[in-house]
Design goal:
3-stranded antiparallel beta sheet; single chain
Length: about 750
């Protein structure tokens, strides 16, 4: 044949022509064009599911391309369909007195072969019996007693069916050169199967939303452009999966009410109660055949979805106001504000308190028989001297677990915010000592009132009712405990003093040495073992900055310094004598040297500072909380911290540790830290279960008044002012506008 003698054509790789207008397209226009091209490519995609392997085998056996094979199969189906409408006499003659032979995929007719030439490799003879077509398209099992005619039998007998005769004729409408087996095989191997059948596969932007077109599944509604307004305003509700499965099994078309078997058609009516959706099957007569709720109902008709939503709001650190706004924007039905605070007060708060007590007991039991070093620090809910709450936390220095956490209200310290941290420390230490924990050392910051608790004598003053100041001197509360200071806070205070000194014009030469002096302070705290060695090492920096590395009473601890190590000029002992003298006054100040004993153990509360930052997730400073709610939100932060200690570090596919970099705007430096695995919050399942059981065991309900706890600060005073507030109407009447000079809230 002519197609066999024609040389194979190797397609050239087209040279990409740069469009001069491409550079002027905006990012949105390029994105729109890219999405349009992807939609065109997706329109050509046809999924055949699990039949891919069979398709590939048939394509390879015939030596066809995917479009050619699809054309063959479609033509076969049309030919067989028209063949079945003919008389059955010829069909019976073709299938009698022949043995059944296995199905050969080669024996499939095609319109291309009937109009042109026989497909290469088929010997020009193909069968078109109904049995072959039925087996190929899986339209049913072959009829018993009917067989397929092989190509060899048809050729030997010289009998051809109508379709077979068409395959041997040439077509006058043929366009383009014919292809032989080599050309067909070459075309099939040049492009991968996925590209030929599913179109060119392109890497899509993961941030772009995938657009599905056409049929996506029975029962799944594909939104069209005209329905967007309805979708944007349609209400939504919380549904339980089990309830949805129950609804899927419900099929009611006529009224089946027991009171009156009317049999009329029913319609669906829906309503909302809290976050739950109710659906009723109602006929024209008003009979209700069935009622379905999207959520299981707890005792006293409390929807489980409302309860779990209130629980999730608290345990995730959110606030009801934000979630309520989310529901309004999403048109998601929510529980009421009153229901949320009732569920929170009656069930969530006491459940979290009990859960923390059990968890704290297990933590303390693990360290009961050994001496521990605890890290302590306080955190106010707002900066300055106007804080209402203070959270004091004690952490185990070895395991980094939170041992106890106490909250103090301003009303419990006579309205004095600076006293709250000391009171919180007393409560936290008393909690550990009363439970039999052997504390040998406490690490805190250099809080003045905290220092008095560890001294042999404690001096404090009290004002009497006549405003007379009386001074008292007594023994410290914990004189037997070793007390260490946080090195980071000490280095921070030293850095502030050096920065302030270097900001002066005559001491500007000290600015380049500030960081090195602070680093030397860290080195001194880590190396020194007693007060004398500490002072000697700290004094050595005064010699080092002048280039003097050996002096009468000592020398520098570093080795030989090369020229590359010197990136700043030395200070001159004569010209910069005033600067060196001021630096010595800072480093050798009696107040700093009096705290040397607190630095020798080289302790840091950095992990505790990180935990206090984590509390912001549960207790944001922009929101006000009642004392019980503020307490349990701090407890939730402690539970989150303890349960997620020891998480493994994320690794890349090649096994390397995954890092995350962060830029510090204050220092102007980049920092890096390893990324840890995601938190699983496994304890929330037990916490939610205990809250549900507390609700199920409640026989009184939540629509009742709640008594204040014995230690609630609101028993001292209703507000932090300490006095009863004036009536609201009186405040509104007395308020005057600064702009008009008239009452700000006049009725007119």
């Amino acid at each position: 044949m002519e197609a066999d003698n024609q040389p194979s054509v190797i397609p050239r790789k087209r040279k990409r022509v740069t469009n001069p207008r491409h550079n002027v397209l905006s990012a949105s226009e390029r994105k729109r064009r890219r999405n349009q091209n992807q939609r065109v490519q997706k329109a050509k995609v046809i999924s055949i599911g699990k039949q891919v392997n069979r398709w590939k085998e048939l394509k390879e056996s015939l030596g066809l391309t995917n479009p050619s094979l699809a054309e063959v199969l479609l033509d076969t189906y049309e030919t067989t369909k028209s063949y079945n409408t003919s008389t059955t006499t010829s069909t019976k003659m073709l299938h009698t007195d022949h043995e059944a032979v296995p199905h050969v995929p080669v024996s499939v007719p095609s319109r291309a072969a009937s109009e042109k030439e026989p497909v290469p490799g088929t010997s020009g003879v193909l069968t078109s019996t109904p049995a072959t077509t039925t087996h190929l398209f899986h339209m049913g099992h072959p009829t018993p007693g009917m067989s397929e005619i092989s190509a060899a039998e048809s050729e030997s007998e010289g009998q051809l069916s109508g379709v077979e005769k068409i395959l041997t004729t040439d077509s006058e409408d043929q366009v383009g050169p014919k292809q032989g087996p080599e050309e067909v095989q070459k075309e099939a191997t040049e492009v991968s199967f996925e590209e030929m059948f599913f179109g060119e596969l392109k890497q899509e932007d993961p941030q772009e939303e995938e657009e599905e077109e056409g049929f996506i599944g029975r029962g799944i509604h594909l939104v069209h452009e005209l329905e967007c307004e309805k979708v944007a305003s349609s209400p939504m509700a919380l549904c339980s999966v089990e309830q949805v499965k129950q609804l899927a099994l419900t099929s009611i078309t006529t009224c089946i009410a027991d009171s009156d078997k009317c049999g009329k058609p029913v319609t669906l009516e829906h309503s909302f109660v809290g976050s739950a959706l109710y659906v009723k099957w109602v006929c024209d007569s008003g009979h209700v055949s069935n009622t379905w709720c999207s959520q299981p109902i707890l005792n006293r008709r409390l929807h489980s979805g409302d309860f779990r939503l209130a629980m999730a709001i608290v345990t995730s650190g959110n606030n009801f106001g934000k979630i309520e706004m989310l529901g309004k924007h999403l048109n998601l039905k929510m529980l009421s504000r009153t229901s949320f605070f009732q569920i929170q007060g009656h069930y969530i708060v006491p459940t979290i308190d009990d859960f923390w007590k059990d968890h704290q007991t297990r933590v303390l039991d693990s360290i009961r028989n050994k001496e521990i070093v605890v890290l302590g620090d306080g955190r106010n809910d707002s900066p300055g001297y106007c804080a209402q709450y203070c959270t004091y936390t004690l952490m185990d220095s070895e395991t980094k677990k939170i041992l106890t956490i106490k909250t103090v209200d301003k009303r419990e310290t006579d309205g004095k915010s600076p006293r709250m941290e000391t009171e919180g420390f007393r409560r936290a230490m008393s909690d550990l000592l009363q439970k039999g924990i052997n504390v040998k050392e406490v690490v805190t910051d250099a809080h003045t009132q905290a220092l008095e608790l560890f001294s042999s004598k404690c001096c404090y003053t009290i004002k009497t009712q006549s405003n007379d100041t009386v001074a008292y001197i007594s023994e410290g509360t914990y004189p037997a405990l070793s007390h260490s200071h946080d090195i980071w806070h000490a280095a921070k205070n030293l850095s502030k003093k050096l920065t302030k000194l270097g900001s002066l014009r005559k001491h500007a030469a000290l600015q380049k040495w500030t960081k090195d002096i602070v680093n030397h302070f860290w080195f001194t705290c880590r190396t020194a073992t007693d007060h004398r060695q500490f002072v000697e090492l700290l004094r050595g920096v005064l010699h080092h900055i002048t280039g003097d590395h050996e002096w009468a009473l000592g020398c520098c601890q570093h080795g030989e310094l090369s020229d590359s190590d010197r990136n700043k000029p030395w200070l001159d002992a004569r010209e910069d004598s005033d600067t060196i003298k001021e630096l010595a006054n800072i480093l050798l100040h009696p107040r700093l040297l009096s705290k040397v004993k607190h630095y020798l153990n080289f302790r840091s509360t950095a992990d505790l500072e990180v935990f206090h930052q984590h509390i912001l997730m549960y207790c944001a400073k922009r929101y006000a909380y009642t004392p019980p709610v503020y307490r349990i939100r701090n407890v939730l932060a402690a539970l989150d911290h303890n349960f997620h200690l020891g998480r493994s570090v994320k690794t890349k596919p090649d096994g390397q540790i995954q890092y995350h970099r962060c830029f510090n705007k204050k220092s102007g430096r980049w920092t890096v830290f390893p990324v840890k695995e995601e938190k699983d919050y496994s304890y929330l399942k037990d916490l939610t279960l205990q809250a549900l059981l507390k609700r199920m065991q409640d026989r009184r309900g939540m629509k009742r008044s709640r008594d204040l706890e014995d230690a609630d600060p609101r028993r001292i005073a209703r507000t932090i002012m300490g006095q009863a507030p004036p009536p609201t109407a009186q405040l509104a009447a007395e308020q005057v506008s600064r702009f008009s000079g008239t009452p700000a809230f006049s009725s007119n």
